[in-house]
Task: inverse folding
């Protein structure tokens, strides 16, 4: 990519200052924030070391904060020992034992609550159960569950015994699950009979059975939570009911003390190749990032009810459901179902019924709910809300304004938080009591986060009107440590572009004259569909696995609700299909991709062609395909194409 396509087009100038009553109670005001920035600027490593000592409980304190000898495999607090689950649960038992840790609501209206003491007991029982199955320190456990409290318990139980979890989003298919189990070499799968979503049962156990039917030789047992109660197949040699196994367990389990560098989890995410990468996170540094950002960005206090709508299958559900808020002793809300069941007021009803004070969601949800009309939020009492957040993709100013007006009643601050699976915690975001916001901008980096905007030579972009690559120039505690089983890919993907001088995020960004950041999108072959990352190559590999498909190229196309949608150009074996045959095959391929990867990857558009536009060296001209998918006038030079005539055919919508 060249920097000429990262000129900013946004001209948003509205500025929203924090309301005085918010500032008056905020954990951080402008002075407090400046002090943190100054401390971090004066001594980057010392700043983080100080926070690590203050904010986390250590069994053995660390003596060295940052070890850069293996850079870019940085190590933070490595000779310190701690346990993440002890930090999230045990340390609150004294002052907050009877405080509610989790409030849960299912789609059908069923509710459950767990106090810190109860959650601790359940996690200990599960941890003992895992041990009884031979799971211990360093073993990988794949979690494939609905969005229920037990999913958080499963993560916490792994952390408690030093096992490494890898949560696979319940919307992923059997074969996506299989790939992740195999790459991680997992010993145990924790799943459920099913989950509830949009009035249907998500057949998790069925998908798990399908995944395990081939390969997955490392899996010895499958632990199954009874959630829906519908009939599922149980393999007597392999499968165990959660409730049966837990009934025998003690509710006490000493935490396994691990090095701060001990891997806490792997989380697979898409990149520019067909194979998802297992992003590996640490224990101490990761937890520190999740913990302090809850304080800085969400202003989290003891009387809050924090609702992050993300599923635990994504990084947001790790850092801001399962770990960060619990580390702070907060009350979280979890909701299993869809936002529009039974109607478009569901989210707002939940906010009212559970007294939600902080609400964190994705632009795709905001846009979908905005489209359903202002009449829904006004039906409910949203007066407890005090802070709104957004994550996953750029929020367009129109959606921002609706969020601000219809939900925030023009008073509540909005934190637009930029970060990634790899960064572990929020990197760029307003601090709500300190930083005035501009709709569509994630504003400024947090203290201790050294963000730069550089051109293709790695030089800082000085001109405020120019965009550039978003890079991070200093290591930070919650950064990924490596890609599981593939450190070369870690180095190549994130650290090779500018002589290894900085972490390359893969996003383009524009920094305006006020130092505010405007994320413009990915610079690699990665799509952002409904705030979720999807590699174009993954979809292409799924398509070419279909017997009729010879070749495929996938690009993103702007979508009103999803942000981006999948647009596939497909070359078939034999004649190019048309008419009824094309319609039928389109449907078949859409379902095929959904079955192979998950519904998220289902292409919205499929266009058949006799060929793809290629350069003489055989490279597919993706930029051209993007323009075609967007119905744009073709301005690119097509004379270098091997087959210039193809453009006209690709642009035809028959
Ligand atoms: C990519 C990371 C981290 C949470 C969920 C997504 C995009 C994320 C924002 C934002 C503009 C954003 C970036 C980033 N992104 N947040 N506030 N504004 N873009 O995690 O799947 O790892 O995707 O999401 O493109 O690189 P992820």
Result:
């Amino acid at each position: 990519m060249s920097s000429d396509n990262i000129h900013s087009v946004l001209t948003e100038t509205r500025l929203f200052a924090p309301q005085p009553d918010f500032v008056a109670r905020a954990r951080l005001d402008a002075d407090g924030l400046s002090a943190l920035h100054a401390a971090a600027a004066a001594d980057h490593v010392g700043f983080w070391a100080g926070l690590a000592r203050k904010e986390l409980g250590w069994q053995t304190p660390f003596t060295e904060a940052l070890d850069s000898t293996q850079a870019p495999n940085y190590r933070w607090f490595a000779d310190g020992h701690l346990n993440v689950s002890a930090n999230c649960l045990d340390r609150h038992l004294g002052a907050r034992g009877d405080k509610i840790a989790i409030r849960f609501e299912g789609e059908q209206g069923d509710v459950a609550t767990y106090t810190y003491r109860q959650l601790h007991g359940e996690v200990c029982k599960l941890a003992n159960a895992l041990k009884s199955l031979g799971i211990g320190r360093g073993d990988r456990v794949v979690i494939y569950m609905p969005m229920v409290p037990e999913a958080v318990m499963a993560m916490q139980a792994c952390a408690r015994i030093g096992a490494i979890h890898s949560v696979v989003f319940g919307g992923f298919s059997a074969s996506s699950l299989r790939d992740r189990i195999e790459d991680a070499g997992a010993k145990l799968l924790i799943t459920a009979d099913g989950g509830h979503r949009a009035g249907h049962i998500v057949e998790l156990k069925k998908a798990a059975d399908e995944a395990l039917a081939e390969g997955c030789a490392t899996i010895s047992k499958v632990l199954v939570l009874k959630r829906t109660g519908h009939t599922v197949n149980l393999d007597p040699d392999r499968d165990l009911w959660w409730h049966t196994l837990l009934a025998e367990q003690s509710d006490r389990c000493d935490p396994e003390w691990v090095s701060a560098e001990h891997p806490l989890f792997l989380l697979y995410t898409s990149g520019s190749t067909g194979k998802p990468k297992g992003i590996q996170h640490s224990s101490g540094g990761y937890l520190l990032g999740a913990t302090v950002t809850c304080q800085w960005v969400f202003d989290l206090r003891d009387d809050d009810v924090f609702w992050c709508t993300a599923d635990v299958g994504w990084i947001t559900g790790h850092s801001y459901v399962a770990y960060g808020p619990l580390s702070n002793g907060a009350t979280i809300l979890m909701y299993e179902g869809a936002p529009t069941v039974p109607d478009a007021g569901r989210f707002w009803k939940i906010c009212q019924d559970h007294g939600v004070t902080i609400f964190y969601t994705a632009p795709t949800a905001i846009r979908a709910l905005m489209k359903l009309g202002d009449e829904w939020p006004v039906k409910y009492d949203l007066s407890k809300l005090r802070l709104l957040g957004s994550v996953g993709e750029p929020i367009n100013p129109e959606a921002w304004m609706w969020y601000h007006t219809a939900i925030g009643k023009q008073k509540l601050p909005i934190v637009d938080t930029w970060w990634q699976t790899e960064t572990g915690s929020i990197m760029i975001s307003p601090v709500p009591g300190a930083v005035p916001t501009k709709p569509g901008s994630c504003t400024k980096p947090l203290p201790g986060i050294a963000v730069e905007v550089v051109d293709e030579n790695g030089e800082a972009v000085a001109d405020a009107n120019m965009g550039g690559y978003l890079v991070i120039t200093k290591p930070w505690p919650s950064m990924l440590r490596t890609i599981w089983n593939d450190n070369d890919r870690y180095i190549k993907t994130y650290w090779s572009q500018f002589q290894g001088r900085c972490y390359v995020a893969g996003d383009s960004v524009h920094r305006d004259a006020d130092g505010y950041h405007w994320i413009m999108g990915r610079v690699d072959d990665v799509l952002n569909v409904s705030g979720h990352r999807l590699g174009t190559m993954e979809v292409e590999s799924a398509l070419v696995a279909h017997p009729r498909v010879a070749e495929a190229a996938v690009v993103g196309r702007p979508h009103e609700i999803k942000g981006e949608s999948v647009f596939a150009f497909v070359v078939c074996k034999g004649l190019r299909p048309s008419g009824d045959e094309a319609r039928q095959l389109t449907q078949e391929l859409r379902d095929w991709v959904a079955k192979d990867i998950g519904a998220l990857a289902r292409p919205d558009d499929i266009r058949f062609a006799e060929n793809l536009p290629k350069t003489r060296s055989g490279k597919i001209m993706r930029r051209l395909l993007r323009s075609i998918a967007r119905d744009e006038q073709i301005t690119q030079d097509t004379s270098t194409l091997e087959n210039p005539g193809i453009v006209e055919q690709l642009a035809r919508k028959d």
Remarks:
- The first strand starts at residue 66 and ends at 67.
- The two ends are 31 Å apart (CA to CA).
- Residues 269, 314-316, 391-394, 416-421, 442, 505-507, 519, 522, 528, 531-533 surround WT7 (CB under 6 Å).
